[in-house]
Specification:
48% of the residues lie in helices and 14% in strands. By secondary structure, the protein is of the alpha/beta class. The chain folds into 3 domains: 129 residues, 3-Layer(aba) Sandwich (Rossmann fold), CATH 3.40.50; 159 residues, 3-Layer(aba) Sandwich (Rossmann fold), CATH 3.40.50; 133 residues, Orthogonal Bundle (Helicase, Ruva Protein, domain 3). The strands form 5 sheets. A 5-stranded parallel β-sheet has the order 2-1-3-4-5, sandwiched between helices. It has a 5-stranded parallel β-sheet with strand order 7-10-13-6-14.
Length: 450
């Protein structure tokens, strides 16, 4: 007879505080996890190397070692490491952010909201082992995107409607999906509708559904998107492209939560969360008479603006590395790595298509590259503009190229060790003085010792 716990997702909890640890063990067991509780980094190292976990929840401050150092050492040993979620006090948030840059999945600050912690852990555990990987639950590491990520659980608890604005490709639908998960859970329906892609003549039938015989070609009854979203989330992308006639009908549904299918007289009730997104300036459209003012104020109760990628340089570097790692997970026999000059050129590019364009560029480069090193030609032979390409392909001396490689590698090691000079020097096998001299010569700034 099989053990029932064999079917439960395994969670490794690394926490030295007895009261906190016992409370979290009880919490996660009630949430359906099999929990292994480790009180030290050494104990956690043995457990994680001995068993396969779906997620690791670790405090950063541990009695024998920094929890981040535990993660970084495990990451070097095991490329297929389970997602790490760090618990940190307010004073060590910077350290948590550094760990996210190095590949950590997420973090929560103490005292944390228990519901938020459970949702984050469940999302990471559900995502582990899929092609998407745990990093797809993150919006990025820039301060702007971390503020959005931190606000979503709070907004989801209280908001029935949310408006997301930003340029095309910045990730508005991804933010909507995370809002949905916080609001109603992963088991509820997320119905995404692109208003710009539906002809005006078909929009009413698509949104509200129809009965058999309602119009020529209606050979069977069909439920519309609004009905399908009952007890879930309706995501209306490019709401600015919705015709004025449909805006009035949408407003009425939002007020009454009832509608009638085409060809029917029977009201249908649908209760859902509404998320709208657009790259347009809705306020300007209201002033121009192109968008209903009453609908605008109905959906604009809570508003999130996502900045373009060119204003989030930290996210460019982070996404590039994530997309390369994602390719390597899928194709380990064709593993790729970035030339440091190429990474800098990618950060200099404007990315008018934002994250979507960046992802396609990285995928294309990984596929077309003839070798493991992703040089400029792999990226700049296609969609990126000629000026950037020319700058990136200009010949450099060997000394200049080696300095670029050294600058990138030292920056990476410092990132991994939270900016601590002594730890970084030990990892590099050089003295602290030698590291300091190299950083000064290369123009790299590092944090002081704690």
């Amino acid at each position: 007879m099989s053990n029932p716990s064999e079917n439960l997702p395994r969670l490794c909890l690394v926490e030295d505080d007895e009261i906190m640890g016992e409370s979290l063990v009880q919490l996660f067991r009630l949430e359906g996890f099999e929990v292994s509780w480790c009180r030290t980094a050494a104990e956690a190292m043995k457990a994680i190397e001995a068993r396969r976990f779906a997620v690791v929840v670790s405090d950063i401050r541990l009695p024998d070692r920094d929890g981040g150092e535990l993660f970084l050492e495990l990451k070097e040993r095991h490329p297929r490491l389970p997602p790490f979620l760090f618990m940190t006090a307010y004073g060590t948030i910077d350290r948590a952010v550094e760990l996210l840059k190095a590949g950590g999945a997420d973090y929560v600050t103490k005292p944390f909201d228990v519901d938020v912690l459970v949702q984050k852990v469940r999302g990471l555990a559900d995502g582990y082992g899929t092609l998407d990987g745990n990093a797809d639950d993150s919006l990025g590491i820039s301060s702007a995107m971390r503020r959005i990520a931190e606000s979503l659980p709070r907004l989801a608890r209280h908001a029935a409607a949310l408006l997301i604005t930003g340029e095309s490709g910045v990730g508005k639908e991804h933010v909507a999906q995370l809002f949905h998960r916080h609001a109603v859970g992963v088991d509820s329906k997320f119905i995404a509708v692109n208003c710009a892609s539906i002809p005006e003549s078909l929009m009413e039938a698509e949104l509200f559904g129809y009965e058999r015989g309602a119009f020529t070609g209606a050979v069977r009854s069909k439920r519309g998107y609004v009905e399908l979203a009952h007890e879930g989330t309706l995501f209306l992308d490019e709401i600015g492209d919705m015709p004025l006639s449909m805006q009035a009908k949408l407003l009425r549904i939002l007020q009454e939560r009832k509608f009638v299918r085409l060809g029917s007289e029977t009201p249908v009730t649908s209760d859902f969360r509404l998320v709208c997104a657009t790259h347009r300036d809705l306020k300007a459209m209201v002033e121009a008479g192109q968008f209903r003012e009453d609908l605008y104020y109905r959906i604009h109760v809570l508003h999130l603006y996502i900045p373009p990628l060119r204003e989030r340089l930290d996210d460019i570097r982070w996404f590039v590395r994530h997309f390369v790692e994602e390719f390597n997970r899928k194709h380990p026999e064709e593993a790729r790595r970035l030339d440091p000059r190429t990474e800098q050129a990618l950060m200099n590019y404007g990315w008018p298509g934002n994250v979507r364009e960046l992802q396609h560029a990285v995928e294309r480069a990984c596929i077309l590259s003839s070798g493991p090193l992703l040089g400029a030609e792999a990226f700049f032979g296609g969609s990126l503009d000629d000026e950037i390409a020319t700058q990136s392909l200009e010949s450099e001396s060997l000394t200049e190229y080696l300095m670029a490689c050294e600058r990138d590698y030292l920056s990476l090691i410092l990132e991994r060790h939270g900016g601590h000079m002594t730890r970084a020097a030990e990892a590099l096998g050089i003295t602290r003085k030698t590291l300091w001299e190299k950083l000064r010569r290369l123009g790299i700034k590092a944090k002081g010792e704690p």
